């Protein structure tokens, strides 16, 4: 008998800029796992509105991110691709999970503390509830594996904790998901300060490379990347800048760290930066071409998202009705 494939769920926020950090930490692995797992990939627009969005822009970004998933190599015939707000069960399960989540555990979340510090003018309830919505996303699909970058580890732990709490308070309902965090590249750092995470919300655009940057932009950003003292190209704790560039280089040229270090022996920092830029440009160019083609076919993208929402909705509603029954909702 054929063994059942593991269920995999993940998502990215449609906030406009998708960085090579998102690609290395998440998207790249999504593509790799699509054959061995039952994959569900979501454009998490409901998470995006925890920060203020321009409505027309959000709508555009949502379609573009779905197209980007496909352009990066995700096959809509093999995977379920959908938009979070198209499946109301995400909001419905969030409400239910809210009632077994403690305010204390949400206020201790690193990302919440971090975002509230940076956006004092907009510390909204949604921002605080963000990890519960994320838990609902994952638990609705009886997910086995969640491929994410290292920054999402704490949120994943909450999702596991809520699944266990619900299961023990009622009876086994949710599968307890496992994180899939790549050993290398789980935290790509800023090109301007290798001690902080590369982030699309960084005010300095030279600190990140977007998947839609032009070759000239990419070359310039790597040229300006901050490196370390010394001249040797190897990964080590006292060389955070070079280590970060090596992680990017390995991910984009499909080489192991050892291979890359041997290849780069004797190269100067300037030559190395140029090679990183070339590897990134080479990989991104076909993705950008495909993205452009896809964006010209809005009908196809809308069909993918409609079919995806239908498939996702069926699975999600099955879990939601189980939950509603367990908690005693009259049905
Ligand atoms: P988002 O959009 O902020 O990030 C999307 C994915 O990119 C990873 N990532 C990185 N990986 C390595 N280095 C970086 N510098 C870097 N920056 C971002 C993130 O870890 C993430 O995997 N909350 C999620 C979205 C989400 C989700 C979910 C994920 C909502 N529901 C359910 C998994 C399952 C987030 O961080 O989005």
Give your account of this protein's structure.
It is built from 13 helices and 5 strands. It has 331 residues and is mainly alpha-helical. Helices cover 54% and strands 7% of the residues. The mean pLDDT is 96. It has 2 domains: 7-185 and 297-327, Rossmann fold (3-Layer(aba) Sandwich); 205-292, Tyrosyl-Transfer RNA Synthetase (Orthogonal Bundle). The protein has a 3-stranded parallel beta sheet with strand order 1-2-3. Strands 4-5 form a two-stranded parallel sheet. The structure holds tryptophanyl-5'AMP. Tryptophanyl-5'AMP is lined by residues 9-13, 21-22, 24-26, 44, 47, 134, 137-138, 146, 148-149, 151-152, 186-188, 197-198.
Output the keywords.
Tyrosyl-Transfer RNA Synthetase, 13 helices, two-stranded parallel sheet, 331 residues, mainly alpha, 2 domains, Rossmann fold, 7% strand, binds tryptophanyl-5'AMP
Radius of gyration: 21 Å
How many structural domains in the coordinates?
A: 2
- What string gives the helices and strands in order? EHEHHEHHHHEHEHHHHH
CATH class descriptor of the largest domain: Alpha Beta
Instruction: Name the overall outline.
Output: globular
- CATH homologous superfamily of the largest domain, by name? HUPs
* CATH architecture descriptor text of the largest domain: 3-Layer(aba) Sandwich
Strand content: 5-15%
- Determine the CATH topology of the largest domain: Rossmann fold
* pLDDT averaged residue by residue: 96
Please state the structural category.
mainly alpha
Distance between the termini: 36 Å
Number of helices: 13
Show unreliable segments.
Answer: none
């Amino acid at each position: 008998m054929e063994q059942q494939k593991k269920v995999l769920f993940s998502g990215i926020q449609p906030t406009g800029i998708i960085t090579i950090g998102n690609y290395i930490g998440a998207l790249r692995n999504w593509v790799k796992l699509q054959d061995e797992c039952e994959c569900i990939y979501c454009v998490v627009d409901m998470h995006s509105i925890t920060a203020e969005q321009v409505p027309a822009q959000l709508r555009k970004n949502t379609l573009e991110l779905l197209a980007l998933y496909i352009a990066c190599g995700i096959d809509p015939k093999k995977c379920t691709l959908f938009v979070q707000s198209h499946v109301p069960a995400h909001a419905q399960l969030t409400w239910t999970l809210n009632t077994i989540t403690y305010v204390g555990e949400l206020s201790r979340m690193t990302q919440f503390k971090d975002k509230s510090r940076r956006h004092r003018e907009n510390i909204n309830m949604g921002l605080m509830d963000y990890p519960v919505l994320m838990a609902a996303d994952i638990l609705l699909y009886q997910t086995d594996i969640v491929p994410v970058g290292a920054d999402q580890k704490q949120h994943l732990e909450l999702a596991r904790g809520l699944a266990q709490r619900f299961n023990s308070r009622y009876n086994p309902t949710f599968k307890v998901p496992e994180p899939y965090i790549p050993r290398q590249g789980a935290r790509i750092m800023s090109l301007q300060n290798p001690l902080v995470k590369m982030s699309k919300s960084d005010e300095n655009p030279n600190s990140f490379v977007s998947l839609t940057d032009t070759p000239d932009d990419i070359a310039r950003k790597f040229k300006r990347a901050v490196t370390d003292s010394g001249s040797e190209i190897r990964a080590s704790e006292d060389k955070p800048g070079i280590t970060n560039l090596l992680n990017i280089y390995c991910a984009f040229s499909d080489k192991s760290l050892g291979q890359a270090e041997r290849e780069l022996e004797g190269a100067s920092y300037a030559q190395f930066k140029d090679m990183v830029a070339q590897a990134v440009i080479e990989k991104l160019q076909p993705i950008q071409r495909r993205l452009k083609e896809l964006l010209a076919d809005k009908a196809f993208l809308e069909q993918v998202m409609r079919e995806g929402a239908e498939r996702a909705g069926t699975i999600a509603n099955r879990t939601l009705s189980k939950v509603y029954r367990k908690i005693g909702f009259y049905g």
